[in-house]
Amino acid sequence: MPEAATHVASGKVREIYALDDERLLLVASDRISTFDVVLPTDIPDKGRVLTGLSGFWFARTRDLVPNHLLALHADGRSTECRRLEMLPIECVVRGYLSGSGWKDYVATGEVCGHRLPEGLSESERLPAPIFTPATKAQTGHDENIDRAAAVELVGEERYDEVERIALQLYAFVSDYARARGIILADTKLEFGLDEQGRLVLGDEAFTPDSSRFWPADEYRTGSTPPSFDKQFVRDYCESLGWDKTAPGPELPADVVDGTRARYVEAFERLTGLAFADYVARPEIVL
Ligand code: Q0N
Fold first, then answer.
1. What are phi and psi of 247, to 5 degrees?
2. Residue 26 CA: which ligand 1 atom is closest?
3. Residue nearest atom 14 in ligand 1 by C-alpha distance
4. Which ligand 1 atom lies nearest to the CA of residue 204?
5. FRET label pair with 122: which of 3, 163, 212, 218, CA 20 to 30 Å apart?
6. Which of 283, 208, 275, 272 is nearest to 50 (CA)?
């Protein structure tokens, strides 16, 4: 960490430092959360996998929308980014009915104002992907909002632009992943504006922490498909009968190793690159 960098914000698993007025340093840790609780045991290389995947997608989507990535550091887990004025909404795209989208559908037949066909099952593929914005809760859970509520926050023109770009990004990455045996069920993107007011993709993008990745060969409707990355951790936590409040349990070595292997497998399948080559030379993802 640069001595002069001042800490700006912490997420559950990432830290942000200011390098100067224009640039931020984003550092991805090896921490893992499950059921919204950060566990006391790290997953080695998880931060590198997420940073490498984000960089891979940023490099491949720059013609669709500019992004905040300026440099990928040699440690493979920290990036320099352009400082943006972040939009006050989470930009979620859903191609499948899961998580809060499934809950809202069961309760109302709609997700964020999108009326969906009757009789859909949990995890079913939607007729077409939908843009489902949410508020950025400072504490607690993000709240799904409809178009009118999101327009109040960002304006109509900007809303139409982020919806169009987010759907294009989802289409590109979900096609890419599907060809490699992975379903991108949904994803959360964050956008900001540069000094000229142009839309820029920020945060991390299309990582297992910001997206639901499902192994295509295990996909079925009527339940929650196994998570590509966290299933061993969830199964282990369920086997303990833990009440899902902090502090979470320590993970045994076999759960750590199996989970690390799943993160590395996601990286290698999606990028077509050997993870060891990324660790040696992170810039190969760009
Ligand atoms: C920013 N967040 C929320 C880390 C990520 N490029 C940027 N410019 C200005 N601000 C931000 C970014 C970015 N990215 C984004 N906070 C500040 C996402 N955080 C949540 C905590 O973990």
1. -80, 150
2. 4
3. 203
4. 14
5. 163
6. 208
Alpha-carbon dihedral sign for residues 91, 96, 98, 103: positive
Q: How far is the CA of 123 from the centre of ligand 1 (A)?
A: 29
Q: What is the C-alpha R_g of the chain?
A: 19
Q: Which of 65, 87, 136, 203 most suits a substitution to test ligand 1, by most atoms within 8 Å of the C-beta?
A: 203
User: How far is the C-alpha of 2 from the C-alpha of 110, rounded, in Å?
Assistant: 47
Cβ atoms of residues 211 and 129 within 8 Å: no
Residues with CB under 6 A from ligand 1: 9, 11, 14, 16, 24, 68, 81-84, 86, 192, 202-203
> Nearest 5°: phi and psi at 135?
-75, 160
Q: State the closest ligand 1 atom to the C-alpha of 14, by its place in the atom list counted from 1.
A: 22
pLDDT in tens, the chain (286 residues): 655 678 888 888 999 999 999 999 999 999 999 999 999 999 999 999 999 999 999 999 999 999 999 999 999 999 999 999 999 999 999 999 999 999 999 999 999 999 999 999 999 999 999 999 999 987 778 999 999 999 999 999 999 999 999 999 999 999 999 999 999 999 999 999 999 999 999 999 999 999 999 999 999 999 999 999 999 999 999 999 999 999 999 999 999 999 999 999 999 999 999 999 999 999 999 9
DSSP assignment of 85-97 equals EE-SEEEEEEEE-
| Phi, then psi, of 96 in degrees rounded to 5 | -135, 160
Which residue is listed with tokens 């909002």? 145
